[in-house]
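2024-03-11 09:14:02 INFO worker-7 job=invfold-0412 stage=load source=structure_tokens
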């Protein structure tokens, strides 16, 4: 090769390297940045960050930025941002139906829409609020299930056998009363002061929740569980101060009562597992048991947090690609296992999730997981209903008034019906 040709070859090589550098720089400049507003109960945002790095390694044209914020920011600031046309591309929310008007339908951008419909069918509807809406707006990243915790040590001390998996609420009331009497604890049971917690037993006792027109209704099934619950509070079965000790619709849990060994059975939910494990420790043995049955079902209530796509995003295709990555079975299983949450993915519900957790946590998660297929379709429908608080909040107020004797159960239910109707009417304005 002549010197001139050699110089020409070197020049071409240098030009090619420069063009390649410019190409890579351009690709980097053009990479879509997706911002994810994320709060965490435990380590959810940390695990999401870990998965996002893996996503970026396979999708060089997308940069994921996880903005970790307090839960209060999601509740108070996110709605204001969205109303002003601002906000992130994706947000982790628990008020799933309340923000639905801001959601982006990623369905048209998904490669396999049927995969989502098959595996997340029970919870996709929570993000849809219009009749006939078939949009896919996000991914439930954490399913929660309500259910009871039991002080196993107290049962052993009282030498009373625990009821089996198909036991009724009446069976558990009888058993926990015996235990409470034998061990001289304050009360047999407590339920969180929450209309959401109340709804599972109500559905189990035959509450239809909706009438033929799809409107909320207080029927005989709902009245039946209210009467039982009021009676249990009056006869000492329930720790009366949990509901009677607060006013209006204010929330109060009974964790401290359970932690301190003052009650035998506590109706709360799967989100309490870590707290149980860390705060009770070796003070006593606690277990989760299946939701007790009523005449109609053996159901708790589902709930959870969702990663929702938002309309303000300038990169809808990239948002869909990222959420689709998280939704794939292996990635979703890793997210659920590392955060010690329950799966909303029906394939994983059937297969089970391999949790690398403490034995007590694994056992509790196993019981809650086994209860997922027992959840009534009505429970899913109520959880996804846009105005479910119109039933849940006044339930707490009116049932408490019946417990403390301000009004009869019949009057409380009449007032509940009118409260509920007015609340829905105001919300629809």
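2024-03-11 09:14:09 INFO worker-7 stage=emit residues=429
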């Amino acid at each position: 090769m002549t010197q001139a040709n050699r110089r020409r070859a070197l020049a071409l090589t240098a030009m090619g390297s420069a063009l390649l550098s410019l190409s890579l720089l351009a690709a980097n400049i053009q990479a879509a940045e997706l911002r994810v507003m994320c709060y965490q109960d435990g380590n959810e945002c940390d695990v999401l960050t870990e998965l996002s790095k893996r996503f970026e390694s396979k999708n060089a044209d997308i940069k994921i930025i996880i903005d970790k914020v307090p839960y209060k920011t999601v509740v108070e600031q996110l709605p204001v941002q969205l109303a002003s046309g601002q906000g992130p591309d994706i947000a982790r929310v628990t008020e799933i139906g309340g923000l639905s008007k801001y959601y982006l339908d990623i369905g048209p951008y998904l490669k396999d829409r049927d995969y989502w419909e098959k595996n997340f069918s029970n919870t996709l509807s929570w993000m849809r609020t219009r009749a006939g809406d078939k949009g896919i707006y996000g991914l439930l990243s954490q399913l929660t299930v309500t259910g009871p915790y039991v002080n196993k040590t107290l049962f052993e001390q009282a030498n009373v056998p625990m009821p089996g998996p198909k036991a009724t609420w009446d069976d558990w009331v009888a058993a926990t009363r015996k235990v409470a009497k034998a061990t001289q604890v304050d009360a047999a049971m407590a339920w969180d002061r929450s209309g959401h917690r109340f709804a599972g037993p109500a559905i189990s006792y035959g509450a239809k929740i909706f009438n033929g027109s799809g409107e909320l209704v207080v029927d005989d099934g709902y009245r039946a569980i209210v009467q039982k619950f009021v009676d249990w509070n009056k006869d000492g079965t329930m720790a009366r101060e949990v509901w009677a000790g607060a006013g209006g619709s204010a929330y109060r849990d009974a964790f401290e009562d359970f932690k301190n060994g003052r009650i035998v059975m506590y109706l709360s939910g799967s989100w309490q597992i870590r707290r149980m494990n860390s705060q009770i420790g070796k003070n006593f043995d606690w277990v989760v048991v299946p939701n007790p049955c009523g005449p109609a079902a053996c159901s708790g209530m589902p709930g959870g947090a969702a990663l929702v796509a938002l309309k303000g995003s300038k990169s809808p295709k990239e948002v869909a690609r990222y959420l689709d990555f998280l939704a794939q079975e292996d990635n979703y299983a890793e997210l659920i296992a590392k955060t010690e949450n329950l799966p909303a993915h029906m394939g994983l519900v059937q297969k089970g999730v391999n949790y690398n957790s403490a034995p007590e946590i694994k056992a509790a998660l196993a019981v809650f997981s086994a209860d997922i297929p027992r959840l009534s379709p009505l429970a899913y429908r109520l959880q996804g209903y846009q105005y479910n608080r119109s039933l849940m909040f006044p339930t707490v107020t009116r049932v408490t008034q019946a417990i403390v004797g301000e009004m009869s159960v019949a009057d409380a239910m009449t007032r509940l019906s009118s409260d509920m109707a007015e609340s829905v009417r105001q919300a629809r304005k």
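2024-03-11 09:14:09 INFO worker-7 stage=report msg="The beta strands are 32-38, 62-68, 90-93, 138-151, 187-191, 263-269, 286-288, 302-309."
2024-03-11 09:14:10 INFO worker-7 job finished
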